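ingest -> fold -> write
write: protein_1
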Amino acid sequence: MLKIGITGGIGAGKSIVCRLFSLLGIPVYDADSRAKWVMNNDKALQQELTEAFGSETYTLAGELNRTYLGKVAFHDPEKLKLLNSLVHPHVAQDFADWATKNQQAPYLIKEAALMYESESWRQMDEIITVFAPMEVRIKRILKRDPHRTPQDVEAIIAKQLKEEEKMSRAQHIIYNDDKQPLIPQVLQLHNSFLSKVK
């Protein structure tokens, strides 16, 4: 089973690339949305998070109190590190279970913004980095998230691994710069992956 990781900075276009692979019949695991699901449904993780961050971490209805957790963890590097150290192993297990259920597919894709930061690249056979120039990314994010300011976007980007490092560590780069068409790049990689699993 070939496992392909897709990463890239905010606004680079990971989701559209994953949608193209999905249209080709390839199962795609979205680590960000699954992390939210795991935090709401994994009893062991819920207990760990409550012990680490207090009883307000979950509402009385048992749902994750994202506003509270955001205030507590996102502005304190040590607490953010602790949060990630608790969540990432559970997401890694969730991905392993999902991969087992999808083993009839020729290959699988895991989309993760924090592919390297979470160490989940270690579960992958190959990595694709989706690249777009900074000014293109900022324009896209501001259009997609009108509630954000350019300063908000720059602060998010500053916290992510530098694009150059992501590109140097990846086996493949997809350029989503609004100049080079995406579909031929995705098709070329798709055919290359299929040839490896035949």
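write: protein_2
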Amino acid sequence: MSDAPNDLVIYGSPISPFVRKVASVCLEKGAGFDVEPVNVFDPPQWFKDISPMKRIPVLRDRAVAAEGTDGTIADSSAICGYIEAKHPNPALYPAEPFARGRALFFEEYADTMLAPAGGLGIFRPIFFSITKGEAPDLETARETWATKLPPVFDYLESALGDNEFFSGNALSIADISIACCLMQVSLVAETPLDKWSRFAAHFERMQARPSIAGPFAQAGKAVRKALPEPFDLT
């Protein structure tokens, strides 16, 4: 058995929903990858050089270049698109043009609507406060859960309709992105979705997929060291 490293390296932390999105795409495709941790709050210079926006994840493809800026791609959406091109099967981007466009839209919706609401409004006020030795800001988290996330859930419930998946009648980048972003909230708080039964069923199915559950379990281990149990925000 070869001990050679995988071509694909994900720089970041599984605590990031965007790192988990990339990892899930790799796992769905059976594409081997390594994860190398980076402290995004105090990154080394080499990471600053390959991450123009100073964010995780960044992907390196060692088959292109093993060091330097060559062979690196920043931004999870760009990374997932690259992995799809390099490992086209199974496809996670629909072939039919309209379905593909919708899948890309839902990925963007997850990144720009769901992730900021859940991450900035719930995960950070709870987890970041605890890691700094402060009391969790449950007031902000509860306000976010009560007022900012319901309109997002309303839209996703309506957009999903009676379909099993968000686009193309098959698992796509849309489903993975939405699940990974909402699961960021699940790291620190309970996420009851009783008012959105169809979206709740979709979320449950996604959570059960090994490609999504595995990276989430790694994140959960890290979070549970500081926060033994998620909070009830209702």
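write: annotation protein_2
The two ends are 51 Å apart (CA to CA).
The longest strand covers residues 8-12.
pipeline exit 0
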